[in-house]
Amino acid sequence: MIELRELTKRYGDKTAVHDLTLTVEPGKITGFLGPNGAGKSTTMRMILGLDRPTSGTALIDGRPYAAFPHPLREVGALLDAKALHPGRSARAHLVALARSNGIPTARVDEALETVGLAAVARRRAGTFSLGMGQRLGIAGALLGDPRVLLFDEPVNGLDPDGVLWVRRLMRTLAAEGRTVFVSSHLMSEMELTADRLVVIGKGRLIADAPVAEVIARSSRNAVRLRSPRADLLPPHLPDADIRRTGPDTLTISGVPIERLGMLCHELGVPVLELSPQAASLEEAYMELTGGSVEYGVRGKADAR
Amino acid sequence: MTSRPRDGGLPGAVAAEWTKLWSLRSTWWTLAGAFALCGLMTSILATDTVHDNTNELTQDDPGVLVTSDLVVAAIDIVQFVVLGLAILTITGEYATGSIRTTLQAVPPRGRVLAAKAAVVTAVVFPLGVLLGLTGTAVASVLMGEWGRTTLAQTLGDSLAIGAYLALISVFMLGVGALLRSTAATLTLSFLLLMALPMLLTNAGVPLVRHVGDALPSAAGRYFMNGEDSPYAPAAGLAILVAWAVAATVAARTSMRRRDA
Fold it and tell me: Which of A100, A185, B51, B58 has its CA 20 to 30 A from that of B103?
């Protein structure tokens, strides 16, 4: 379990993470979403004691990271696949990690086997592709058989096979009762992987809810109505968000589909189509973070 | 390599640093470079001595010299190769980003520094002793009758070279942790160990000379070669230890405060 309490990080007058309070629970995959510069990596670095919070605390199973005598046996993390010396072999990199935490070196070969790097174990890490580097980083995270795992953009640079493999691995880890906290900017990936979502923008918490709830709460959950006399409806729906999406098609959100059906019946509007349009996580996310894109063109989120 | 779980802690951190040091090719190249440069420097100094003693000019004759003293002089230059090794153990990690992996595995900053200092000492001290012994051997062969070699003197000087190189390496390791940049740390080491001492020890103002005498390189020279020194060799050693400890403590404070 990871607990953040009013976690704040400022660089000068710029606030990277603002008053973040959340709990990442064991046994499920918690997705950590946000646009670039939202503060995801900074938050993860603070959890691991690499960056000092300006204020607030980050606890893992009730203790700060630095309080663990063998942190790699408690918490496995892949932050940056390039955070290793390019001149060192994959195996030597892992052996050094294992020895620092009193982990049997037999685990090194197991971990290399798990991530599919056994054949290149003695090659220098600098010669690895980005995908191989990610796998090596994941091997390092798994080395100590930890109960808590943090992955920062783990599928970055992986081929489709690798993406599938990471997804299955995270599922397995969560099913074993471990805490899995994974950041990504790929909403589609999170939709397939995560059980719960934490969304931040400009360092502030935007949403913290199960994936299904985030999607359901989106106002993009709309109803599509196709009718030659669709124009009759809007005057009767003052609260709804209505967009014309075709010559005789309206996309209406904020009104239950049942009420629309009844209304059409009352007004005598012939209905050619009346269908619910579930928002994708991507749309829900764009809507949530639209106002909080750190590096982006203003209004871009609305320009779909 | 054992497959039994061990305790981690400081021994684990030292084992990890040891593994990291020897799994880099640069370590081996540096060691080879140190021996090559030491051989070259002592050869130059030895042949110079012979030449000065045998040419027509009599004013420049140094006479018979203690061979290991030549090696001590050569260390003025050779030390920078050894320092490269020590500095890279920390600045190399900042350059590659692997410092974050190191600190994930061993969060206490003081323990990381202690482990690195222990490994650097364990490598550099015997390296320095071996450089002293091989350098003396090279010098004694080249100097012939103009060199005086006694076992006690050679052993004493070689041990002193080992101790000096180990302490100056730990000192620069601390400086490297403060500056985090290989180039900046190497540049500072040249300034601090070569340029500044030359500037200060030739100064007319006594106070400035005293400051120069307290620099780590001057302390090292007085420790290794007691002639014309303003204080005892043991005091030189103490000053060196103080510099190494001060740099390490400062480095620990900096690493605790700053983000990795």
Answer: A185
Higher-pLDDT residue of A13 and A179 is A179
Give first-to-last CA distance, chain B, whole Å: 30
Residue A73 and residue A29 share a domain: yes
Q: Is the dihedral of CA A48, A51, A52, A53 positive or negative?
A: negative
Sheet of A14-24, strands arranged across: A14-24, A2-11, A55-60
Q: Is the pLDDT of residue B87 over 90?
A: yes
Q: Which domain holds residue A255?
A: 222-277
Closest partner CB to A71 (pick from B6, B20, B105): B105
Q: Provide Rg for chain A, Cα atoms.
A: 23
| Tens-place pLDDT, residues B47-77 | 999 999 998 888 888 889 999 999 999 999 9
Q: What is the ipTM of this complex?
A: 0.90
Tell me: the pLDDT tens digits for A161-183? 999 999 999 999 999 999 999 99
Q: Looking at the structure, do residues A112 and A242 belong to the same domain, yes or no?
A: no
3-state secondary structure B53-75: HHCCCCCCCCCCEEHHHHHHHHH
CB A52 within 8 A of CB A11: no
